[in-house]
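Hello Y.,

Per our agreement to keep a running log of every chain we model this quarter, I'm adding this entry. I've kept the format consistent with earlier entries: sequence first, then predicted structure.
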Amino acid sequence: MTLSKASKAWSSAGVLAEAAARDRAAAARERLRVRGGIVLLGAALLLFWEYGLGLIVERRYVSSPSEVAARLADLALDGRLWGHIGVTLAEAGAGYLIGIAVGLAAALLLVAVPVLDEIAGPFLAAFYSIPKIALAPMFIMWFGLGLLPKVLLAALMVFLIVLANTMAGVRGISPGLVEVSRVLGARGATLVRTIVLPGAAPAVVASVRLTFSRAMVGAILGEFIAATQGLGFLIVRSSRQFETATVFAGIVVVAALVMLVNAAIRAVEARALPWSTERPRG
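Predicted structure for the entry above:
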């Protein structure tokens, strides 16, 4: 009887191991297909840009991947590119951190004081609808031509998204769970720490992960208006001089930086909060 049970246990373990191996192999094949599709689509787009887009649009206005790559190499070798990257990353990074901190603090305040949420709600909705490009010249006039207006624009872009997603995450918490927690004695800071923050965490983490791109938009928007350094300055100056390859080179660098930073944030999130899958809004 003992041998029979042991053989059945070994048989069950073998079946489970075989099923797990099949799942891993299927997942690996799926990842390979996705990566292959990305490579093929990217290659097709580059080939179309190199050889086909000039048949639709005037060639001097679209440049080509080979010309953009050559221009990127020139900018990198003479050192100008790294200076522009450093300035834009400093502006976007500072605005990103400020926007996250202020957005979370404001959301927690509105959660802790519901009447304040009702009072401020219409004004926040109206402010959210304002096109941020309309604020950029005002920020330049108010705060000068240095880093400060770009940092504030980047922070504003991040603040609104973090605030909106944090509030949405809080509102998605089951009212029954909150009521039960209150019955059990949770009040004020304890309720926020034990129920509200864990419940809103997926939306908050997802918005924190993806808002760096908004910080870059804010910083570059400020550089478009008035700057002497930065990727936005490089793009605007090159467009005014009809240096199309340099314009696209700047755009490619911006996209690559956002992808790299988002990948780094996603890696940290996957290690710290592997269960977080909520998608942000905005």
